[in-house]
Amino acid sequence: KAGVTQTPRYLIKTRGQQVTLSCSPISGHRSVSWYQQTPGQGLQFLFEYFSETQRNKGNFPGRFSGRQFSNSRSEMNVSTLELGDSALYLCASSILTGNEQYFGPGTRLTVT
Amino acid sequence: SQELEQSPQSLIVQEGKNLTINCTSSKTLYGLYWYKQKYGEGLIFLMMLQKGGEEKSHEKITAKLDEKKQQSSLHITASQPSHAGIYLCGADIIDTDKLIFGTGTRLQVFP
Questions:
Q1: Residues A53-67: pLDDT tens digits?
Q2: Are residues A33 and B99, on separate chains, in Cβ contact within 8 Å?
Q3: Which of A35, B17, B82, B95 sits between 20 and 30 A of A65, alpha carbons compared?
Q4: What is the tens place of the pLDDT at every residue in A64-96?
């Protein structure tokens, strides 16, 4: 069974631009969570989607948004990028909410 | 302050030595997960421990959950260079419905 895939793997953007990251969960997994990882803050929860509905949201500004499609694939969008948004963005899927999560390889975003 | 504290932050051991990493929660734990991460890559799921003093082993890695102390320990026996990486604990804790992660422990194993 294929693992969680994320695209693109690397991305370079400039301040003020917006970006969309994609995540395809493991087949059969209906919950997708997004995390931001930086050296200073560690791994921080962004949001979780289950059956196309946002179930939970972390403490991030409204510039960070996401959605989930009927096939469980998820996207997250960051608008008006700031230098501090440079990070590794990780997506994780699980069968249901509350089960163990399996992570993708991440998308490394660099904002210049 | 961090709800989930890991110690030590960094560990350098000689190949063949045993080591222990700890993860302590400031709140009641409902489930504890251990992950391993290679630098800049995704997290690899190692083990899940559920409330109740559970202990699990996989190859040379053993994890225990002490519910009284709200703490989990990850023990590696006879460490190898392949064990090197960042070990992260994640937890379901009371009053939150999202997974909280510790700050990570960077492990280096030298020959």
A1: 999 899 999 999 999
A2: yes
A3: B95
A4: 999 999 999 999 999 999 999 999 999 999 998
Contacting residues of A for B34, CB less than 8 Å apart? none
Helix, strand, coil percentages, rounded to 5, for chain B? 5, 60, 40
CA–CA separation, A8 and A20 (whole Å): 9
The CA–CA distances, whole Å, from A89 to A21, A28, A46 equal 9, 22, 9
* Burial class, B88, CB count within 10 angstroms (exposed 0-12 / middle 13-18 / buried 19+): buried
Strand bridging mode A87-94 / A102-103: antiparallel
In DSSP terms, which residues pair with B37 in a beta bridge? B43, B86
User: Best interface-test mutation with B: which of A37, A56, A89 has the largest number of B CBs within 10 A?
Assistant: A37
Angle at A96 between CA A31 and CA A62, to 5 degrees: 35
Distance, in angstroms, between A46 CA and closest chain B CA? 10
Mean pLDDT of B24-32: 87
Percent of chain A with pLDDT over 70: 98
